[in-house]
Amino acid sequence: MWNQRYRWKNRQIREQVSVIDGQKSPTLLLKNARFLHSILRKWITSNIWIHQDRIIYIGEELPKRLENCEIIDCSGLTLVPGYIEPHVHPFQLYNPQSFARFASQSGTTTLICDNLFFFLHLNKKKAFALLNELNESPVSMYWWGRFDSQTEMNEEETIFTNSDIKSWLEHEAVVQGGELTGWPKLLAGDDLMLHWIQETKRLGKKVEGHFPGASDKTLTKMKLFGVDGDHESMTGADVYKRLMHGYTVALRHSSIRPDLNVLLEEIHDLGLDQYDSLIFTTDGSTPAFYKQGIMDMMIDMAIKNGVPIIDAYHMASYNVARHFNLTHHHGMIATGRIANINFLANEAEPTPVSVLTKGQWVKRDGQNLINDEDINWKEFGLDPLNLDWELQSSDLQFSMPFGIEMVNDVITKPYSVSLDFSIENLPQNHEESYFALLDRNGKWRINTIVKGFAKSVSGFASSFSNTGDIILIGKMKKDMILAFKRMKEIGGGIVLAENGKIIHEIPLPLAGLMSDQPLEELIDAEERLKELLYERGYPFTDPIYSLLFFSATHLPYIRVTQSGMYDVMNKTILFPTLMR
């Protein structure tokens, strides 16, 4: 049974009380602990008793019995609540377990995660069984319930069904609905989406928006529909507008939007000096970005930008827990809460030297520890990608009168094609490349030209995409086919080919979308891929997000989707996919 909400059994609660009565020993005693008391907003020095996974006492007294108790003298250390990342996409090449393990080492002990990957690729029974398995992690993992796919999918109405959406929303692990990438449908009169929002609110859970560049009127309407928070502020004025309407505002610092310094500077220029409705997020960044840290990085940046120290820590802990109605378990060091505690050298250094999660050490005196079992992903249907079809030369025919031009990492616009693309190889050192999206089941394809991805990438194949369909990019059709064949051989992944050779690959054996390797190893692989792409003319910062968002219809202006070439602004299919 999923027990993330910590419904301790009567026997466990009686045992905790018996420790207070001196009949039993706690499992861990933190003596002389200087810690952040989030209610009093002060640094307090006390003794902290922990029994198993719960803080059971804070005060001046010491336990009467200590025979089975680990005792830590915390003199010289500063303790703060475990950090909470409120907006995690735990499938950006990494997987939920590998990200949770990595995050815990820098003090992020609670994750609130996107369920889109599970919703699209697992049936409900297997998905919920996997949530139960992930619950065994020392890191506390909560989830969203998505309302839409953020792309144009074939037969989407058979995937995002009313019954499945409600099953997710009712699950105890799910604490919010959204994020609302499909909000234009809501504005246009989609009452089913409004019904799901109403159900989310009826269940006492939050709704997360996705409103980049939204006007004041749009923000007003979304608040009336029931949206509680948004993470898409790109300026201080955006933050101010959202706060005016009563939103909780997540300040983002991510691999494609590293905005925190600017946001803090601009909100201070606007005279904003209240932080209770502000939180932090890294918004599902790609692996290498996390070399800098996660919530600890953002706290450090906030302190250096003049945010009062207690507010900086609250924006990564107490404020998040309060927003999600989780303060009875998370976000503070206090009696009855889960024992998620970061041990700092001092309050100005938010990266912890030791980390306690659910009463277990996951980092001790700078030494990283792993104390959960590896998940057997195959048990939940996350096998290596098994493509039972072959790529034919006829699949690489390009004759569309317009292509897609990359404006930045994730925005694409249409442009008129003027070159002859009927040839086998395109000239090097210009910005246009062949582009194909193929159904992972081999049923359909759509071919076009991409301008601005790179100048001299010969063959590139990826099973990592918004929907798990296959992306091919390149100048040389033979190298594109070679990259596809290698991607197929390794059970899915990202492969770069050149002059008849494979020059780099990132295996993604979990459904062709996620790695089973530790995030530290994945960082090295992603950094090498980016180096090779930069050398071949990729002009932006985050090619992994480029792959993910080629099909993402929550961004302008034109997208390559399962339904065909899609005009986002006019909500129309310009060219349908072709059956193979």
From TrEMBL:
<dbReference type="Pfam" id="PF13382">
    <property type="entry name" value="Adenine_deam_C"/>
</dbReference>
<dbReference type="InterPro" id="IPR006680">
    <property type="entry name" value="Amidohydro-rel"/>
</dbReference>
<dbReference type="InterPro" id="IPR026912">
    <property type="entry name" value="Adenine_deam_C"/>
</dbReference>
<feature type="domain" description="Amidohydrolase-related">
    <location>
        <begin position="78"/>
        <end position="362"/>
    </location>
</feature>
<dbReference type="Pfam" id="PF01979">
    <property type="entry name" value="Amidohydro_1"/>
</dbReference>
<dbReference type="InterPro" id="IPR011059">
    <property type="entry name" value="Metal-dep_hydrolase_composite"/>
</dbReference>
<comment type="similarity">
    <text>Belongs to the metallo-dependent hydrolases superfamily. Adenine deaminase family.</text>
</comment>
<protein>
    <recommendedName>
        <fullName>adenine deaminase</fullName>
        <ecNumber>3.5.4.2</ecNumber>
    </recommendedName>
</protein>
<feature type="domain" description="Adenine deaminase C-terminal">
    <location>
        <begin position="410"/>
        <end position="571"/>
    </location>
</feature>
<dbReference type="GO" id="GO:0000034">
    <property type="term" value="F:adenine deaminase activity"/>
</dbReference>
<dbReference type="InterPro" id="IPR032466">
    <property type="entry name" value="Metal_Hydrolase"/>
</dbReference>
<keyword id="KW-0378">Hydrolase</keyword>
